[in-house]
Amino acid sequence: AQSVTQLDSQVPVFEEAPVELRCNYSSSVSVYLFWYVQYPNQGLQLLLKYLSGSTLVKGINGFEAEFNKSQTSFHLRKPSVHISDTAEYFCAVSRMDSSYKLIFGSGTRLLVRP
Amino acid sequence: KAGVTQTPRYLIKTRGQQVTLSCSPISGHRSVSWYQQTPGQGLQFLFEYFSETQRNKGNFPGRFSGRQFSNSRSEMNVSTLELGDSALYLCASSSSGGTQETQYFGPGTRLLVL
């Protein structure tokens, strides 16, 4: 079975400061990794995904994430956040074999303060 | 291209009733997945359909069912509603449902069971 752990339920940060949202996963099989963002009263939007190749993945809105296989981590980073980045962020995995479903972490609420 | 649409957006029902939610995927997408989002359990996979066939199902009771039509539109049904069924129900579509594919989420249907 697969599981995803997002250790921080809420991360407060000041505008223009850097941020890191942590994600660790557990799986007995190889997985693909995703980060999604959810703005209030909206669905989820893909920020980035890791399928293979370079372990540093760049996504939309200036976000990037680094896959670390030995630590089974996929932390999300942004060097300078904006007020508009305030949202809920979800890390997710899917099995590389035919599973057709995403396993999500519990989410991290990013709160950007002026 | 129009995004994933879900109807209705909001719904209030009472215990014991049944409810049907609808999802129209992005044009050309043949895979539709459903997720339940609650504050306590987070985002949980319900089921996935591809070409009118259910390919995968999450750990939900039989009261939760779904179907997909030949135009890829999907419906999910919950019978004998319980208070714990109150949640945001999200639908996501992808081209073929491959596990590495991006899933595009709709805005969700918020169900309140009284």
Largest interface: A-B, 26 and 26 residues
Low-confidence stretches of chain A: none
Which class do the helix and strand fractions of chain A yield? mainly beta
Largest β-sheet summary of chain B: 7 strands, mixed
Kindly provide the radius of gyration of chain B, computed on alpha-carbon positions and rounded to a whole number of angstroms.
13 Å
Strand/helix succession of chain A? EEEEEEEEEEEE
From the structure provided, what is the oligomeric state, counting identical versus distinct chains? heterodimer
Number of helices of chain A: 0
Mean pLDDT rating of chain B:
94
Mean pLDDT of chain A: 93
Q: What is the global morphology of chain B?
A: globular
Low-confidence stretches of chain B: none
Give the number of DSSP strands of chain A. Answer: 12
Distance between the termini of chain B: 37 Å
What structural category characterises the helix and strand content of chain B? mainly beta
